[in-house]
Structure formats: C-alpha cells, structure tokens
Design brief:
Elements lengths: L2 H11 L3 E5 L16 H13 L3 E6 L1 H5 L3 H13 L5 E8 L3 H14 L4 E4 L5 H8 L5 E7 L5 H4 L10 H9 L8 E5 L4 H10 L5 E4 L8 H8 L6 E5 L1 H4 L7 H24 L1
Parallel strand pairs: 1-2, 1-8, 2-3, 3-4, 4-5, 5-6, 6-7, 7-8
The chain binds orotidine-5'-monophosphate.
Orotidine-5'-monophosphate binds next to strand 8 and helix 11.
Length: 272
C-alpha cells in the first residue's frame, strides 16, 4: 500500500486507528476454547466488528508463534480475512545481519503478505535495508518506544546532548523515505512526540500506548499530526479485551468506535 492510499483510507474512514491483535489463550472468552482454532475465531470476530473503524491491523507475532506451527497457521488465516484495503503490520521487531534480514523480509512480505513489519534499528543500515527493497512494503522502525525501559538507551544523550532516539531518526532517513519508512513512537511520551515530529516531519508514526498503557490520543494528535495525518494510533488490549464474555466482539466494536469518533474530531480540528 502506498502513502497516498493510506492517507485516502484515513480520510474516507475519518480514522487513524490501528487495532492490535494480541490474542492470548488465557484472556480470550472461555467459550471460544472449544473451537478448533480459538485464536483465529477470536481475531476473526474482532476484525469483522472493527473493520469499519480501523485503517490498520497489527497482529503481534509473539501471540501466534507462542503456539507453535498451529499459531503460524492461525496468523495466516487472520491475515487472509483482513479486508484488502486495510493496512497490515507484522509486529515482529526483527533485524539481523543482511542475509538473515533478507529472509525475514521474504517471510513477512512474500510468504505472508503483510504490508509492513516492525524492525529494530540497533544493528544498523545493513540490517534494515533488506526490508526496504520490497516494492510497496514498509519498515516501521523502533524510534522511541512506549515502555519504561525506553529510557535505558533511547533517551541517553551523546556529548552534544542529542538523545539516541534522535540519532536513530536522523541516520535512518538516509535508508528509506516517507514512502517506505515509518517510526514507532510511543503514546506514553506525549511531550516528546513533538520533538520526534521536528526531526521527521513527513513520516508516518505508529503510535502504540493509548488504552491499556494510558497514553492520551489528544496529546498524540496535538504533537504528532502532520498534513497527511502521519499517525496510526494502536490500541490492543483496550479494544480486544473490552469484554471477556460472549459479547466480546460487540464490546470491541464499541471501543473502536469511541476512538474513531475522537479521531474524527481531531482530524477536523487539525486538518480541517
Ligand atoms: P496495548 O498496550 O494492549 O494497547 O498493546 C500495545 C501493543 O503495541 C503491543 O502489541 C506491544 O507489543 C506494541 N508496542 C508497544 O506497546 N510499545 C512500543 O513501543 C512498540 C510496540 C509496537 O511495536 O507495536
């Protein structure tokens, strides 16, 4: 999917919502456990009820691969039922020496047909560039993550006072363009989203951390929105576990709709 296709989806749906699919056998409604593929049944119901409000889905690979070969099968089936015009993110946080990254890219972009993958920048240009060689596919590079541990390395400043996450943003802009490179910027560091936006004015940001982690959607939009929205805001647990009963998919729909309505207001406020 191209950047302009993504932006036109955002305009059509008045939404920049990414629904995170983090299906955990211990958290999904108990009545699904007797189904042949509980994880798939759960995700299918969530996708069917939230697709009107979402412009992206982000299956978190850990929740599938923890179940072994059956989990990979569930993931493939989930990918197949996501509507064509919705952006898909493999949240896999990969990155390795070049020939290995090339095979990770093949796995997620060709064997499975994801539009994008989350990638760690730590091993540098040659670990990321194999992912950028695929037409119409995206790298979503970890820049400033939402967890407390992001302070351990990402916020450490160099001798000029520049934090590491800023060096990642600056350097990586030589590797890809706003047409194939996005950044992960956590919603829990509202005040810093504006700083990230100054360094990367055009790129899309994938923003996890609203909902269960407590980040504020209005702060994210205030500091992070650009002229083509430039934001995909993810909520996983806040949507998918809104209810643990038989009404879970309807409850997920309601939560997704609440976020979409707030997003509609923010798009009108900042983009007119
Ligand atoms: P909830 O906190 O349940 O909304 O889930 C957040 C999702 O985003 C999880 O799948 C995390 O793995 C992911 N995530 C973060 O929470 N923080 C980050 O900085 C980056 C990610 C990510 O790359 O998606």
């Amino acid at each position: 999917m191209t950047r302009s296709e993504l932006f036109s989806q955002i305009q059509q749906k008045s939404s920049f919502l990414c629904v995170g699919l983090d299906p955990d056998l211990e958290k999904i409604p108990k009545h699904l456990l007797s189904e042949p593929d509980p994880i798939f049944s759960f995700c299918k119901a969530i996708v069917e009820e939230t697709a009107d409000f979402a412009v992206a889905y982000k299956p978190n690979i850990a929740f599938f691969e923890a179940l072994g070969p059956k989990g990979w099968e569930s993931l493939q089936k989930v990918l197949e039922i996501i509507p064509e015009d919705i952006f898909t993110i493999a949240d896999a946080k990969r990155g390795d020496i070049g020939n290995t990254s090339k095979l990770y890219a093949k796995a997620f972009f060709e064997t499975m047909e994801f539009d994008s993958i989350t990638v760690a920048p730590y091993m540098g240009a040659d670990s990321v560039s194999p992912f950028l060689e695929f037409q119409n596919k995206w790298v979503i590079l970890l820049a400033l993550t939402s967890n407390a541990g992001s302070a351990d390395f990402q916020l450490i400043s160099d001798t000029q006072g520049k934090p590491l996450y800023q060096s990642v943003l600056e350097k990586s802009q030589d590797w890809g363009t706003p047409e194939n490179l996005m950044y992960v910027v956590g919603a829990t560091r509202g005040e810093l989203i504006g700083e990230v936006r100054k360094v990367a004015p055009e790129h899309f940001f994938l923003v996890p951390g609203v909902g269960a982690q407590g980040g504020s959607l209005s702060e994210v939009a205030k500091y992070g929105m650009n002229s083509t929205c430039g934001l995909l805001v993810n909520s996983s647990r806040g949507i998918i576990y809104a209810s643990k009963e038989k009404d879970f998919a309807k409850a997920a729909r309601r939560e997704a709709q609440v976020l979409q309505e707030e997003m509609k207001g923010l798009l009108e406020k900042y983009l007119g």
